[in-house]
Amino acid sequence: MKIENPPRKPFVARGSGVKRCDDCRLPEEVCICEWRTQVDAGCHFWLLTHRYEFYKPTNTGRLIQDTINYTRVFEWSRTEPSQELLDALDDSRYAPCIVFPAGEDYQERMLDDVSRTDGRIPVFIILDGTWRQARRMFRHSRFLQHLPVIEPKTDRLSRYKLRRSKIDHHLCTAEVAIALLEQVGDLDAAAHLEGYFDRFNANYIATRRRWAKRESDES
Asked: Where is the DTW domain (predicted)?
């Protein structure tokens, strides 16, 4: 994952002893890099990523960067946002909005769609972390409080199997991007990202099953 402001300390995820591809972060035996291609979309994605997410092999934000052109990744900081992010937010070429569920206390900031941007490029800022982290990022980022908010409108249930969620409609980062692309009518880009996500999900699950079988055979 290309990071515009790298995290201060690398995160060592569980399973860090597995020999992984440096790019897709999957075990080398199921690397998916040969299927990685980028396509243009009518919108851009900026991932505001919690520092604990950067090196987790189960993070799906990197799948967006791998498949959708012009995706940018910034490390989130409550008190010290990167200058690259602040400059991007001030860039008149873009019409950024935050992706987050609707709430009564910020109802006046909610957008129904991004079709009217006065010729600017629509940008979806996705808060990349656990649901608990994303809520904190949304509530405690003063530099984001002036931005409009858009809620993904989708009936999708999560097909992400690598982390547990008690609520089916809590989508992972890549699934959020797929839903947004569908929402704005960019179906080709949505299908491209979804295909890559499905391959990532299936290959990762397959390796977990192999590891479980090996442990069972050795016990």
From this structure: 17-209
Sorted by sequence, the CB contacts under 8 Å of residue 34 that are 6+ apart come out as none
Which pair of structure tokens corresponds to residue 123? Answer: 């940008």
Closest CA to 29 of 210, 212, 214, 197: 210
pTM: 0.85
Q: Label residue 116 exposed, middle or buried (CB < 10 Å: 0-12, 13-18, 19+).
A: exposed
Per DSSP, 107 falls in state G
8 Å CB contact between 82 and 54? no
Write phi, then psi, for 48 (nearest 5 degrees): -100, 100
Domain boundaries, the chain: 36-157+166-218
Q: For residue 213, give every residue at least 6 positions away whose Cβ sits within 8 Å of its Cβ, in sequence order, or none.
A: none
pLDDT, tens digit, for every residue of 48-96?
999 988 878 889 999 999 999 999 999 999 999 999 999 999 999 999 9
